[in-house]
Amino acid sequence: MHMFFMNVKRIGPWPNSKEWYCTNIIILIIIIGNIIIIIIIIIILIIIIILIIIIFIIATIVIIIIIIIIIITIITIIITIIAIIIIIIINNIIIIITIISITILLLLLLSSLFFFFFLLLFVVLIVVVVVVVVVVVVVVVVVVVVVVFLC
Predict the structure, then answer these.
(1) What is the mean pLDDT of residues 128-148?
(2) Over 90: is that where the pLDDT of 42 sits?
(3) pLDDT of 10-34, one tens digit each?
(4) Degrees to nearest 5, angle at CA 144 with 141 and 150
(5) CA angle (36, 51, 35) in 5-degree steps
(6) Distance (Å, rounded) from C-alpha 147 to C-alpha 151?
(7) Domain range annotation of the chain
(8) Residue 91: which region, alpha, beta or left (left: phi > 0; alpha: psi -120 to 50)?
C-alpha cells in the first residue's frame, strides 16, 4: 500500500506544491525583469533625447561661431587686401604673405578643434548606450539562470 502512494504522479501544479511556488516565482521574476527593462529603456531614451537636444544646442552655437568666423575671415580678407595694396605700394610683399598664412592656419586650427569635440561627444554617447544595454542583458540572463537552478 505504501509503494502505491509513492508511485502516484500529480496531474498539474497544486497550490501547495513546490512546482506551484517555483512557477509563481519565475513568472514574478519575469514580470519584474520586464518592468525593470522597460524602465531602463525609458531612462536610456530620455538620456538619448537629452543628449540629442544638448548636441543640437551645441551645434547651433558652433554654427553661430562658424558664421562669426566667416564674417571675421571676410573682414580679415578685406583688411588683408587693403594691406596688400599698401604693402605693394611700399614694396614689402613678404609681410602680407605672413599675415595671410597665419590667418589661414588659425582658422584651420579652430575648425579642427570643433570637429574633434563633436566626434568625441558622439563616440562617448555610443559607448554609454552600448555599455548600459550589455549590462541590462547580462543581469537579466544571470537572474533567470539563478532562478531556474534554484527552483
Answers:
(1) 82
(2) yes
(3) 455 555 555 556 677 778 888 888 8
(4) 135
(5) 10
(6) 6
(7) 16-150
(8) left
**Average pLDDT for residues 141-146, to the nearest whole number?**
82
Return the C-alpha cell found at 26: 519565475
With CA atoms as reference, report the closest residue to 145 among 63, 19, 40, 33: 33
Question: pTM for the complete prediction?
Answer: 0.40
For the chain, counts of helices (H) and of strands (E): 3, 0
Cell representation of residue 71: 564674417
For residue 19, what are the contacts with CB-CB under 8 A and spacing of at least 6? Answer: 13
How far apart CA 96 and CA 100 sit, in angstroms, is: 6
pLDDT for the residue 43: 93
CA angle 67, 73, 79 (to 5 degrees): 145
CB 40 within 8 A of CB 136: yes
